[in-house]
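Notebook, student rotation project (T.W.).
Task set for the rotation: take a protein with a known small-molecule partner, predict the structure of the complex, and write up what can be learned from the model alone. Partner molecule chosen: zinc ion. Sequence and SMILES entered below by T.W., checked by me.
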Amino acid sequence: MRHRTTRQLETIESVLQKAARPLAIAELHAAALERLPGLGIATIYRAVRELSDAGSIVSVTYAGQPQRFEWAVARHHSHFICHTCKRVFDIEAPLDVPLPEKRPKGFLFQGDEVIYYGQCRDCRKRSKK
Ligand SMILES: [Zn+2]
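Predicted structure of the complex:
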């Protein structure tokens, strides 16, 4: 049984690595099912917990959105939320975005996060038909 578990975990890992965008549990399950038919949702939850504990994936949460997970990459990137399909995409962001000039005194800023909104390519194509 050990072998099967490893294979499932590897598949789930690979789906997250190749997704290039944060995935909700349902999205991750759907993508993993294409490679491992019959894969249960409980296995997805277990794998996500293991990968989070190991620091391999991080959680991405926005108001009114399901919790999503993405591969923990060192690369700095921003997110784009499609208003139509609600999917979240990675957007390459330049490094060294200047920090705000008026920082609260004594605060150490260690990063920033920009969230873009709009309509993704798939949804734009669909709405043009
Ligand atoms: Zn969309």
